[in-house]
Design a protein that fits this description.
Layout: E1 5-8, H1 11-29, E2 34-35, H2 37-40, H3 47-56, E3 60-65, H4 86-97, E4 101-106, E5 130-132, H5 137-150, H6 153-166, H7 171-177
Parallel strand pairs: 1-2, 1-3, 3-4, 4-5
Helix pairs in contact: 3-4
Length: 229
């Protein structure tokens, strides 16, 4: 399947939330279908070409917005208003090429207003947002996943096949006995699946405890290995 779910974020502001989305969505959709630059850009490639190329063919872009997303930079000019800023460039490329953009608001952060954004990012104010809160993690991840699947039948089918494979269904069994739950687009009816234990994402900690190194199971890229923020 061409295209991935692209996670856009600002390194000093929302890397932990972006990494958490990467872990959770990869667990549901499978490896290779979620793009996070520090985990997905191969060694030695031109990261600028890789990032913009992945944005253009993305199935959706999740714009993770934290408390310092708007104001990062110096007092006179936030980096978001600079065309060379990678958070700006990725979002502007998504809007220019018609990629679906879903703002993901960390905790209680509000969606920026039109006056707070540079012109190429103005469409962000018209995009329906979702929240990602540590204390409501399961609920918020589930809603974001449903949004992605409801707007993309091919991605929904991929998720359904992965769900069936993890539950031990063979392709023949899925064709005969598996049915899609109408209330959970793209996911197998839970009544058809055997119970299985809940597995937390690698490195996940309770909502009131910080993660080591700032993110769950994701290590920050070494200097030069990730686009500058």
């Amino acid at each position: 399947m061409d295209g991935k779910v692209f996670i856009n974020y600002r390194g000093g502001d929302s890397h932990s939330y972006g990494a958490l989305l990467y872990v959770e969505l990869t667990r549901h959709l499978g490896p290779g279908l979620v793009f996070l630059d520090s985990e997905s850009v191969p060694a030695g490639v031109d990261f600028g070409q890789q990032l913009l190329g992945q944005v253009r063919c993305a199935r959706a872009l999740l714009a993770v917005i934290g408390a310092g997303w708007l104001t990062a930079g110096n007092h006179h000019r936030p980096r978001l208003r600079e065309q060379a800023d990678w958070t700006h460039r990725e979002l502007a490329e998504a809007f220019a090429t018609g990629v679906r953009v879903i703002p993901v608001l960390a905790e209680q952060v509000r969606l920026p207003t039109r006056r707070e954004l540079p012109e190429p990012l103005a469409p962000l104010t018209r995009c329906q947002a979702r929240r990602l809160r540590l204390r409501e993690l399961a609920t918020d991840i589930d809603r974001i996943l449903r949004d992605l699947l409801a707007g993309d039948p091919e991605l929904a089918l991929t998720a359904a096949r992965r769900s069936a494979a993890r539950a031990g269904f063979s392709p023949a069994t899925r064709q005969v006995g598996g049915r899609l739950d109408r209330d959970r687009p793209g996911l197998l009816d839970p009544g058809l699946l055997p119970p299985r234990p809940v597995v937390e994402p690698p490195g996940h900690a309770a909502a009131d405890r910080p993660w080591p190194n700032g993110s769950p199971g994701i290590h920050r890229a070494p200097a030069g290995g990730r686009r500058p923020n």
